[in-house]
Amino acid sequence: KYANRTGAESINRNYGDDARSEVILDGSGNIYLASCTQSTRFPTTVGAFQSVPGGVNAVGRVQDAVILKFTPDLSVPLFSTYLGGKEDDAAFVLAINPLNNHLYVAGATASSDFPGNKTGVMNPAFKGGLCDGFVAEFLPDGTMVRDSYFGTSGIDVIYGIQFDKFGFPYIMGTSTGQGADAWPVKNVTFSQAGGKQFVTKLKPDLSDFIYSTVFGTNTPSPNISPTAFLVDRCENVYVSGWGGQLNILDNYPNSGTQGLPVIGDNIIQSVTDGSDFYFIVLERNARSQLYGTFFGQQGGATGEHVDGGTSRFDRNGIIYQAICGNCGGGAKFPTTVGAWSSQNGALPGGCNLAAVKIAFNLAGVGAGIQAAIDGRLRDTVGCAPLTADFRDTMAMGAKYTWDFGDGSGTVTTTNPFVSHTFNNIGNYRVRLVSIDSTSVPLPCNTTDTSYVVMRVKSDQAKLSFTATKVPPCTSMNYQFVNTSVPPPGKPFSNQSFLWIFGDNTTQIAGPGTLTHTYAAIGAYQVQLVLIDTSYCNYEDTLTMQIRISPNVRAQFETPGTGCAPYTAVFNNTSLGGQQFKWDFGDGTTSAQTNPTHLYNTVGTYTVKLSAIDSTTCNIKHDTSFVISVYPNPKASFTYSPQPTQPNTPVSFLNSSIGADRYKWLFDDGDTLRTVQRDTAVTHLYNFSGNFHTCLVAYNNSGCSDTACQEIAITIIPGMDVPNAFSPNGDGHNDKVYVRGYGIAKMSWQIYNRWGVLVYTGTDKNEGWDGRYKGVLQAQDVYHYILQVEFSDGRKANKKGDITLLR
Q1: Fewest CB within 10 A of the end CB: N or C in the chain?
Q2: What is d(CA 174, CA 195) in angstroms, rounded to the nearest whole number?
Q3: Phi/psi at 742 (nearest 5 deg)?
Q4: What is the 3-state secondary structure of 43-75?
Q5: pLDDT tens across 697-734, in order?
Q6: Which residues neighbour 507 within 8 Å (Cβ) at sequence distance 6 or greater?
Q7: CB 218 within 8 A of CB 195
Q8: Model confidence pLDDT, tens digit, residues 741-772
Q9: How many Cβ atoms are within 10 Å of 726's Cβ, its own excluded?
Q10: In terms of pTM, does the model score above 0.70?
Q11: Strands 724-725 and 795-804, how do they pair?
Q12: Residues ≥6 apart with Cβ < 8 Å to 494
């Protein structure tokens, strides 16, 4: 509420409350804003519910809520009004009733004379304490319908308001009411005694609670400062908020996330340092808690928080939360693999904006249909016959039933993609039903339906154009003639086409002739694009490559070597050229611009290219290039014993032909490169299973062949440690190792007689050489602790002694 404050004041209770507000859109794109102002000259519209401030309080300060509605382009304020009494007021959140489009606004007020119509509402009078929450209902034109206080004799603030699909409003906030005057718990089976965060479902006319509950620890003040609120399509309720250091300093000494319950599948973070975010999901009608998790770094200078504002969830039960993270540096803020940024990019000691998306998958199956034509997403207009690709953008179902609206019947698939061809003109309402009866633990929303209308038309424009170089031979000008034909009765306009000349220049034009000058010699992709949406093949494109140069010069690119059978790919980079003649050196030819050619036989081939262009000064130019095609080796191997034996290395015999380098792929993460074919290769697999073991054979020409076999392996897990070793440098027994089979993970600590940790090992292939900090240790007895996890998931511990002999 006031700048540079040092603690809570009036309705400004949490750190960041003075920056709270919310913006939403209605179905027509009109923009609604809930906020507050201390201005006595805030602009209001004619006929506004409250055109002047509510008054000036005893200390001469004034703050009122304000509610505004604008047209989608912000050009016209549809209404703007104050909302407040003689004390402080603020509108934090707002929502639209889906059944009648009435606007509901909520927030906090310290005014006992808060204006409005309180006839028949639940709480027409101020409840006492420092402030109460309020809910006010408006018609779409800004006319007040009714409003009501919601509170106790403590500090009560509403930080969230949402609707279910049946038009019932839900409010969420915090209350410090205690004992007999605590926030009421009504018609629920879930509540947490003494909790200072509330969730309440109201009757639409604000006359009573449908249900009400509280959550949190039994402390005098709230655990969290709430920042987002959702009622999903199954009527489950979601809340997010943060608590801890900043709120402890600001006002609430008991703020913090310690003790809040962690519950559910796929918990993200089960521990907290007290200054984290907390996410909670309550089952429909507050029957139980479905989920609870912490989110944030552990430790650091300042905990996660939000400097005001309201983040968003969506009806699918997905959180989109903005966070002030890693303030002051210190501990690592949790980020996911592949995140855009995993580091704090702010100045040392500064905060960074963090964003988190969490999909809870508790709202049942959802559907969202999207159409594509020729790869163009969200395209719903085309020419008959029209083939369209459809997909469920949410892909949450176990099966999908499609009805294309053209009498062709329904199609059921197990994947979210399908294609369909509409053979006749018309408008077709395509329906998708996504089905998954096991999607949630509750009998809610096991199916969801989505629609899209496809418009199939017959007014197709036939695209064509010609391209001719303008004389003389040194010219850099090309003449393009648009010879496209419109459908009967729908002539083209001078805005129907877009020319893309391939040199970063474009031009909008109609049918007819135009000339374009190129600044440099080269090859250009010229495109004629139909941009007139009145034709069913809107965005159709024709492409032609032109090559412009005063003199034609034949040239091309292709690798100089290959392995038989070798498919050579030729990239024609000629300057100029209207015709091309290829001779591949094996008795075959081609007139393509960029051909490919298969060489089945080993040998050396001279490829020749002739480029011909009658518009150039030299007309014709030739070039050639030599390609060498080499033989492939033949990879093969055998192994023993067959069948393999438990806990026994497998021996491999390389029987490849025509290779000089080899690579073994054992399919368990290990590889081995060898040079000699007769090099003995053995491998001990570390766990049981069928392994797709491969040998890749290479020759000095870079050609290769691969041979693979399935090998069944049995490993019986076990481990042991020798009781002595002699690190004297003679090459025998110089290190002590953990020995065993099926060891997936291990932690091995070796201590001397004084309890000093002299060695730590995590790999059974890396042993202790008897040294500590580079110094060979004394002949003595050393104690070890070994913890092992085997590949079958079993764990084992072993303690013992090792004698170091010198």
Answers
A1: C
A2: 9
A3: 70, 25
A4: CCCCCCCCCCCCCCCCCCCCCEEEEEEECCCCC
A5: 999 998 999 999 999 999 999 999 999 999 999 999 99
A6: 498, 499, 501, 514, 516
A7: yes
A8: 999 899 999 999 999 999 999 999 899 999 99
A9: 17
A10: no
A11: parallel
A12: 508, 509, 510
